[in-house]
Amino acid sequence: MNVLFQGVRAHDDLVASEEQGVEIAAVTGTQAGDVRANRALGDEVDTVLAGLSTGESVSAVVITDGAQDESTLPVIRSRVPIDSVRRVVVRQAQDLESIYYTMKQVLADPETRGTILVPLGVLLLIYPAATVASLFDVPGAALLGVLSALLGLYTLFRGLGLERSIDGAVDRARELLYTGRVTLVTYVVAAALVVVGGVQGVSLLETAGSTVSSDPALAVSAFAHGAVRWFAAAGITSSMGQVTDEYLADSFEWRYLNAPFYVLAIALVLFALTGYFLPAAPGVTALSLTDLAVGLTAGTLLSVLSTLGFAVAESRYPTVA
Fold first, then answer.
1. Which residue in 306, 228, 320, 304 sits closest to 272, CA to CA?
2. How many other C-beta atoms can be found within 10 angstroms of the C-beta atom of residue 306?
3. What is the pTM assigned to this prediction?
């Protein structure tokens, strides 16, 4: 309404000060969104210009009633030159309207909305949640601690951008599941083997007891000696799953088969080395110098022979990309 009154006033002023004709027109868009609203506004401007019976050049004075309407200026300027722009709002509400429009634009962004409203919502729920918890004899301090921890974790995740990494991991897992990747199963099995290896390493460390507890290097050797076989099985399982997927995807290369042999070679070296440094104790079998030499030699030969063997296979039977 303010725009119409100001339009009539501007019309009268221009008629009194200029000799050429002056016309007043009210154009509007839609509430469907920026693109559709601008298109509707452009169509109305075209209709108004087509109805002007003049052969002279036409220019416009645009009158708006808020910051949001000024986003339509490029649409009008693309059809007719703009001499000036007049913004009409209630004088006391200019700053308030600008703040409202800015907040509306910010909260329209899903990422910004989640960053601002979620922590604010958690903070507003703290008091009613504590009140409800007191009715069920739940300590208010414990509930406040849980809510504070959740809010802190959320803020930390948002601040470090970890939610993108988690979303990416979930998307990759979903893709593996839907495409029937063997690695999805082998990774789960490998994770289970790693857990079992950790338990076996701790078990051997407890078995060695006071013999290795005073020396951190011996404690690490005991843990690694007990866990390395299971860790090696996990590495071989996951690498074989990856090789299988590469073969099914027609991107297999002979050198991919080096991975399980390298894992086995490293496991042999670590098993022999950690076993050699372990002291003899009840339930602990220490390896001799001969055993260490055999383990180191076997690991070296296994890695070298696998590399040479698959290099020869690649040269004689090259894979087709």
1. 228
2. 19
3. 0.48
